[in-house]
Description:
Blueprint: H1 2-13, H2 18-42, E1 49-54, E2 58-59, E3 63-65, E4 68-72, E5 77-83, E6 103-105, E7 110-120, E8 130-136
Parallel strand pairs: 2-8
Antiparallel strand pairs: 1-4, 3-6, 5-7, 7-8
Helix pairs in contact: 1-2
The structure holds calcium ion.
The site of calcium ion (CA) has 8 residues, from loops.
Amino acid sequence: MFVIYNKVSKIFQKNVEKKQRIKIAVVFLTLASFFVAGVLKADDEIAPIVTVFVIPANSTSLVVPIYNLEASDDVAVTGFFVSEDSYQPDPSDGAWIPEAPSTYVFASEGTKTLYAWAKDSANNVSLVSLSASVNISTAVSFDATPPAAPSNLGVL
Ligand SMILES: [Ca+2]
């Protein structure tokens, strides 16, 4: 950058007034600062952090609602990933979605743990997940026993 600036300033040195040279320098430094800011922005190396993940403790359906899933990032969170696997997902995995999901569909009943991840536009994936567990039982408990008949009733 400074090499370019020196060449440009040499070209203008003889013909351009001092005030105009200052203007050129200001424009050059402004453009240079935009360039540096762009490089820094493209160099996002800080992964998002999942801050909130809430699902119910019990469910009578395999479709379990996700009450709350939030993440924060130094730039912006661009993807969410919810899985029953505890390992960190690949940022190119097809299961990433841009908004926090509102449900998760389990394949079977039982006590299950879900893991929530987030990523940013530079494909940094959160280093740790937030997890939450749910006990799924779709069997409807059916009370077939009638109450005992009252014994103290008489005809008036
Ligand atoms: Ca980031």
